[in-house]
């Protein structure tokens, strides 16, 4: 059953009452406050910082708080080359994040190893983490990072939250 | 006394240590692992600190978390093909890395004297612009770590202006891959020098603003003065370079000691510190940026017209009209793209003044278009080696100030 | 002002047969030290008598197929005289070690660790000769010519793994040798070999 509108508002009903589905509400809360955990490893980290600064302002999209603590963040943005030596640390930090969590692989190195096809580089962070959005570029422009975040928001908006949390009871 | 000991036992490691030596009144040592993912370590550096309370007794830096195998990759690529990898070494000043790499290759090929004047001026502009950009970020990050977040936002706004200029020049905001062996990939666009002049006026105002916020700020002074003192002998013995070396009173700037390109034509000073503490290194960076602006102004005033590439089809790709019509140029184009420039047998070392220190390339060639060995002498790698000597005796909060003042980049350190 | 060539000559006068005739290429002076085990004395003399107080870099070269296999290259610089000098010495594969110069310049500590990590050349007397860029326990020496660019599968302690990087169809198909590119890296790909 597809939904045409997310909210229904009837002004004849008293004042500020909005009808919506639980899914829509929960996903709306989640996607508009995605706190990133910036795993800024290399050059892409600088563009991530630029995306967070005044010109490109990632906090317009709700990612105001760039906390370096995995326990307090929702999305891990892997920005930069992941080497085999670093892979264990990245995985450990991902495991410490609390559900629900998502991963954005930013840049060519995080998506597929980039131009470093060598003995020390993990060919894509998706070999150790489940990635939701890949952003191409070396480094991607901050606008591309924002586009990637918006794509992730689109993905989160479609998540069937209620189905996963409420099992249908036998009638 | 015994009550204090019971309260102090907070973590299991200390508990175990205390259980064995109940009469040891010296205190337990705590091992703290800082990084590799840490906001203040400026990249993936891991510090293993042994502490007695707040004072550090032993420090071991652990690098290599960003080791990507650049030197082995270089053995499989022609000299021009390796250029994008040099961007990503010190990724805060990619233009400077590009220029210094091609200068090293040109030294090997022996064509340093054949470079046209305009090319040298444009390369100098690139280097100094990259120096301003790198120091802006270094200072911004240093200030942010010591608590002054506004400075970071201010310097990043100026950097956005630099990115705009660089994008007009090379096509990319950073990771530019702008220079080529024997010249440059493209000439300056129309009106770029005027934009640059306008920017230089604006950035000097920004330097004044940053200085207003930091130079006489009592909190900043408390955190950085007499913290992380590196003596002159230590600085030379540990091979430091760049602002770190000059902060300790050693007047050594590669641009003045062994001038390369056209640096001997410009009138600029080299700031040198006295105490060797974090504050001196900060002050030197601000002054160096002002000197860079001076050099840039002189470049803009004196830049000549003319070609930007060496006039030799065996080094630089010939123009497309000739390639499509003449046999000889077609063959040269083919050989340059597939085999690369034919370097002589021999080895050279070329060191240059990168914003972070002395970036050096040691190229050993057995002939042909690819190097037999390319060693990158990274200033950040050497600058970090002093940490195990420098940190013991400081408090844990000073570590952040010291790391910020040393201004290293892990992309360069680990290659 | 004393030039690098004069410094090299003074070095040769002091050590005689041990030091080769200074070679000049592109304005740089290189001097070969015949016996690697005497490198510490030579460096000590260079630092104290000739004022070469700054060690810029230590590199290693792998002459795969030749004997002695490894060369170790020391770039020295004098800050007061503004001159640079290069010292080279050779190490065979069976012996594989030479004395450390950490007692002369403390910066050699990390340079020698990297040389050990990447090339497998050991430095006797080094305070802490452990791997610095690869993780501890990595069994190979990456910069040797017989080690492929794509790596070999190994285990990383605590959790992970390493695999070889995919090189199929790419231009970086290397064959380990010291020869030039055309032999080591055949660039022509046959379309029927592409998957």
Strand order of the largest sheet of chain C: 1-2-5-4-3
Strand order of the largest sheet of chain A: 3-4-5-6
The percent range for strand residues of chain A is 5-15%
Order of helices and strands of chain A: EEHEHEHEHEHH
Shape label of chain A:
globular
Low-confidence parts of chain A, pLDDT < 50 over ≥5 residues?
A: none
Please work out how many helical segments of chain A DSSP would assign: 6
Helix content of chain A: 25-40%
In this structure, how is the largest beta sheet of chain C organized?
5 strands, mixed
What's the end-to-end separation of chain C, in Å? 65 Å
Mean pLDDT of chain A: 84
Question: Based on helices, strands and strand pairing, what is the structural class of chain A?
Answer: alpha/beta
- Please report the total strand number of chain A as a whole number: 6
Round the mean pLDDT of chain C to the nearest integer and report it: 80
> Largest sheet of chain A, described in full?
4 strands, parallel
Q: Tell me, what's the shape of chain C?
A: elongated
This entry's quaternary arrangement is: heterotrimer
Strand content of chain C: 15-25%
Order of helices and strands of chain C: HEEHEEEEHEEEH
Uncertain regions spanning at least 5 consecutive residues of chain C: 171-176, 187-195
The count of DSSP E runs of length 2 or more, i.e. the number of strands of chain C, is 9
